[in-house]
Amino acid sequence: MSVRHKAVKATLDRGYASEWNDDHHLDFEDEITVQYLDPAPALSGSWNFAQTSGGSNPDWAMVGAAGSEHAFVVLNTGATTDQVSSMRLMLDAAVSNVTSPADGPVLTLTLQIAAVHAAAGVANSVVEFGFQDDTDALFTQNLDMAIFRVYNGKIHAVTGSGAAETETEIADYSEYAQYRIELSTTRCDFYIDDLGTPAASHILADGDDIPNAPLTVKVSVRSKNNVDSTIRVDALGLTRLRKSA
Predict the structure, then answer these.
(1) For the chain, what are the domain ranges?
(2) Cα separation, 77 vs 226, whole angstroms
(3) How many CB atoms lie within 10 A of CB 145?
(4) Torsion, CA 117, CA 118, CA 123, CA 125, rounded to 10
(5) CATH number listed for the domain at residues 31-240
(6) What is the DSSP code (8-state) at residue 45?
(7) Has residue 27 got a pLDDT over 60?
C-alpha cells in the first residue's frame, strides 16, 4: 500500500499534480509524546512503588507558601539511612519495560532536589532518575540504564550496558531544573535546563557504554547519614521518536 501526501502551498501559489507523491511511507508525526504525570487519576494507576523501602510511597502534595502552592509528586525517605522512595512506570497496569533504545526515547522532567545528603562516592548516591530495566535493583552500578545520578553534591550523567558503565560528572546540581535524556542505540545525550546543548554525551563509537535492552522510567531518592531526603517531580513526559530502529 502506498500513502499519498499532498504538498503544502501558500495562498495563491499554483499546485501541480507532480507535487503529489505515492512513495512515502506512513509516519504519524515526528514525535509521539505521552505526559505521564497528572493529579487525576491516581498516581498508582500508572506507577509502581514496590521498590520503595522504608520511605513513603510517592504521592501528590501541594508545596509552597500560602497562596503560591504548586502540586508536585513528592518522594520522601524518612531520616534513617538507606531508606528509599521510588516510582517506576508501568505498562497496562503491570510492572514492565515500556521502551527500548531502538525507540529513540526522550525523557523530559522538571524536578526539584529539595533535600539530600552530600554523600561522597558513587556507592553513596542519593538520587537517580531516567531509563532503567524494570527489574534491576536501585542505586546499583553497571546496569542497563541511562540516568542522572547525584552524590557528593554533584549531578552525573550515567549510561550502562549491563556489564559496565560510563559516568560523566556535570556540575553541582540545581535544586529545581529541567532535565532531558535522549537515547538511541548508539549514543545518549543529557541536558540540564539548556535543552539545546547537551551537558554530557555518551557515544558507543567512542567506547562509551550504551544500554541495549528494554527499559522503563524510574525516579528514586535514598537517605544517607540519617538525613531525610526529598525530591519533587513537577512534570514528566516520554517521547518515542521511533526512528533509530
Answers:
(1) 31-240
(2) 10
(3) 27
(4) 70
(5) 2.60.120.200
(6) G
(7) no
Nearest by Cα to 101 from 213, 209, 203, 239 = 213
- 41 Cβ contact partners less than 8 Å away, ≥ 6 residues apart: none
* Residue position matching grid coordinates 509521539: 32
Spatial CA neighbour of 152 closest among 224, 78, 52, 200: 224
In 10 A of CB 214, how many CB atoms? 17
Q: Any idea what DSSP says for residue 25?
A: P
pTM assigned to the model: 0.86
Output phi, psi for 41, to 5 deg. -75, -175
For 60-118, what is each residue's pLDDT tens digit?
999 988 888 899 999 999 999 999 999 999 999 999 999 999 999 999 999 999 999 99
Label residue 15 exposed, middle or buried (CB < 10 Å: 0-12, 13-18, 19+).
exposed
For 145-195, the pLDDT digits (tens) are 999 999 999 999 999 999 999 999 999 998 999 999 999 999 999 999 998
156 by Cβ neighbours in 10 Å (0-12 / 13-18 / 19+) ranks as: buried
